[in-house]
Amino acid sequence: MKFEDLLLETGGFGRFQILILIILCLPRINLPMHFLLHNFIAATPSHHCAIPHQEAFVNLTMEEVLLISIPRESDGTFSSCEMFSQPQFHLLLNSSLQSENKSIIQRCQHGWVYDHSQLTSTISTQWDLVCEQRGLNQATATFFFIGVTMGAVVFGYLSDRFGRKTMLLLSLVCSVVFGMLSAASVSYSMLAITRTLTGVALSGVSLIVLPLAMEWVDIQHRTFTGILSSIFWSVGNMLLAMVAYLVREWHWLIVAVTGPCLLSIVCLWWVPESARWLIAKGKVKQAHRHLLRCARTNRRKDFAVSPEALTRMVTDKKPGGSYFYTSLFKTPVLRKISLCSGVVWFGVSFSYYGMSMNLTGFGLNIYLSQFVFGVIEIPAKMIMYVMVNRVGRRQSQAWTLILTGLCIGANIVIPKPLTALRSVVAIMGKGFSEAAFTTVYLYTSELYPTILRQNGMGYTSFVARLGGALAPLVFLLDEVWRSLPEVTYCSVAVCSGAVAFLLPETLNMCLPEGIEDVE
């Protein structure tokens, strides 16, 4: 007897499964509010060098003070990182006479003045993470994703060893603790450490929520579950834009997005441990109790499967044994799946966060850009619900990644003045990128057997978060060549999409229970 047969005995997809999905949607909504929080807490408003003895220019307007104190860039805007060593009063007579004498231009000596019209306070304005310190500002996101990367290894193994629910609760509790410590940071070093630890904790939430839901639903509703979970992510994207719009101070913004984790902790007590995992570990009495509860909630009073029958369900040659990440590479088919899925996950995450963290290049303010990006994702996911069931997981995964790369590449060659066309292409690219992310979560959870599923998700999440950690740093390559970041994102997306063709198809297949099912 397969576990899918047991689910049919308990009523298939009923009230029990719907309640689980509703409860697990809460942490899923909360995830993007942390993962994309960098867009707002580290946003850099327009700024210029602080001008010393500005009170001496009482007869000049602010525009005239800037004119004689700050050099202009080639596009006519005032420089953000340079100032004149002495006031250039002759520019009041003819502002077009910009001096070519570089010796009178110097870096900012007295700090910076920021435009607070959109952002009251960010880590950029609090610790002057601009100009020469710009790299530290971008590194904040990298520190967070390094934490997520480490957490993927830890929670992937622990959730296969000690259970999905236990580790999900632990990760939520740690997320609250480290999130609040981040909000209380009094130095950049403290923020970097606490955001890294928050990433470790949230990695468990990201890693466990979908597999826990997937292991309680039947074959016919796996796609629906995966797409629905992904839609909740998009809802979180939109909510982040609204919360950030209302809370403009970065300390309180972190508190606002961390608070919902407390609600998730309370609600999670109702969600049972995965019966599929319990059976795989030989804990048949607990599994039977949860299955009986499932049947009663689904109003199936004729559930008559005994604990003895569950004992006879053999999931592997080593039932209940311990597995580690090395098990993913010991057999030929699993090895190929692990190597290829690692490349795909890296490409998906790298291109997705590369686009999601480039809000200023969208032509709208950052709040509207964040909201529009969230809205764009929902129709992409609706289309994927049809596509993954019609053309299969493999084709959907490969082509969404390739098309993401092509859209990024197209915006490299489209002239800057064609802003409308560039925006449309960017919107399409964001849609394809989200479609690729939606598919990869569903696809990966179907590729690995139950006894190794969380190890597999942990490994792929580890590789993906490496992509997420590198994505914000790639923006710094624009100092080498302005289009180099886009070329990098495009190349990685197309190449990883091509690798996806090497993975096996899982459409309408039973979830593998043991390693021999995969081989």
TrEMBL record:
Subcellular location: Apical cell membrane; Basolateral cell membrane
GO molecular function: organic anion transmembrane transporter activity; prostaglandin transmembrane transporter activity
Pfam families per record: Sugar_tr
Major subcellular site: membrane
Residues in the signal sequence: none
Ranges annotated as spanning the membrane: 139-158, 170-191, 197-217, 224-246, 252-271, 337-355, 367-386
Keywords associated with the record: Cell membrane, Ion transport, Membrane, Transmembrane, Transmembrane helix, Transport
One Gene Ontology cellular component annotation held by this UniProt entry: apical plasma membrane
Domain Major facilitator superfamily (MFS) profile stretches: 87-508
Source organism, top-level taxon: Eukaryota
Example GO biological process: monoatomic ion transport
Membrane topology per record: Multi-pass membrane protein
CDD domains (alphabetical): MFS_SLC22A7_OAT2
UniProt xrefs under Gene3D superfamilies: MFS general substrate transporter like domains
Family label: Belongs to the major facilitator (TC 2.A.1) superfamily. Organic cation transporter (TC 2.A.1.19) family.
Protein name (record): Solute carrier family 22 member 7
Organism field: Cephalopterus ornatus
Highest classification ranks of the organism: Eukaryota, Metazoa, Chordata, Craniata, Vertebrata
Gene: Slc22a7
